[in-house]
Known about the structure:
Layout: E1 2-3, H1 9-18, H2 31-46, H3 49-69, H4 74-93, H5 95-100, H6 102-128, H7 131-136, H8 173-176, H9 181-197, H10 202-226, H11 233-252, H12 272-292, H13 302-312, H14 318-326, H15 339-372, H16 380-386, H17 417-423, H18 433-438, H19 445-450, E2 459-460
Antiparallel strand pairs: 1-2
Amino acid sequence: MFVFQESELGRILDIVITEMTPQRTPSQKPVPANILFLGARYAHYHAHPDLLATLLVSAMDKINAKVENHQWDMTVLAFWISNATLLLHYLKKDAGLVEATPEFQVQLVELINEIFILIIRDAERRMDKILDASILAHETIPFDDLEFVGEWKLFNKKKHQTPEPVSYKPPPPNRRTQPSPRNVTSLLSSTLFVLDLYDIHSVITAQILAQLFYWIGAELFNHVLSTRTYLARTKAMQIRMNISVLEDWARSNNRIPEHYENGSLSASGESTVDAARRHFTPVIQLLQWLQCFSSLGEKQHVIASLEDTLTQIPRLGPQHLLYAASHYRFEKGEKGLPKEARRHLTNLQSDMKKRAQQVRQTRTRASSKAGSEPRSSISADQEDMSNGSGRPEDEDPVSDNLLMDPAHMLQFSLPTTVDMRISYGAGYGGVNREREKKYIPTVPPEFLAKLDLSGGGSSVKSRDWGNDNEDD
């Protein structure tokens, strides 16, 4: 319990919020959450409701101001999303405060969501500066002597000289210092390091990585499809090899979030590897198409070959395949998309548009019908979809749009109460006592010295608060 006078509150909050600089010491990282929780317990159990409200409102105002002033500082953002999550856990675990602070808990949830977005935007901003040069322009295997149909090549060799086969040459020293996929993985590593350093809950960390993978995949997909330079077989091979470096990073840094469903004793949730695979799939399949469509086979087998290819790239729609084929850069001697295949894809595109229109009409009628019916008539399946337990929108296999939306935010979910109790406690079976001890709300002596206000009027009493029915 943290005992304080209302007249001291402003200075206390300045010390633990406004003037707080994130440090790496384990005892310092949870100080704001610990002091705010212990102060809330004192105000609720031993003072009066007005003091509790004043404490929480003032604290939230200062935290919001701190976050707004440091929205491009990932260290500060990580520090506060960690403390906000921990404070939310403390409040939910305390039988009295969980009932007395519902509005503040909602504000904490909104704050966590806001910081989550700011962390992602900061990481995207950093990667955006080097993504094209590191993944799209970087040549792992330089191909020499390539000639494209309809393109002039400066300083051509003599006309009648026999062309040499495509060959690989090691990059010269000056090219080894140019941007490469390692620049992107370094930024991913630094982001993950900060998240781990400030004990961000694994469920939130997993979603941050998944969102960054989605953004990378969407940006690469759009740049490849909309830039003719990249619509070539050899270029697609280069980019695919560069993306494999990102996949290797995901495997090396694989995490499984500590999320527990339906009383399960084992953690579930999308791992880092699965998230990377899911969100890189569209661009990888686009690169597959660029490497194979010009060699679909003999005329009599072209449709069968095309159908077999389509089963391997289900995340692409006919509009993507036709656009890529229409703007493709052909190497000399390379065949185009056969007319039979183009006609088949055009028919598929028409069929897809008709189905999409029918689905929209069905949804419109269902929406109108649902609006005129009482709430109880909505089916359980519809409820599941609305609360996120159904198939997520971002997992739809084919998009109607030609380009992806890099700004699209995947559905964000907070760790559940069970998740937080396990992660901030001793875990199942109570074997992780060290971790449990780490998350008992206490205040380090050095901060007690800073909070020595009004001649010692402030004090902290620490005790086991697991028994919620007990008074202090």
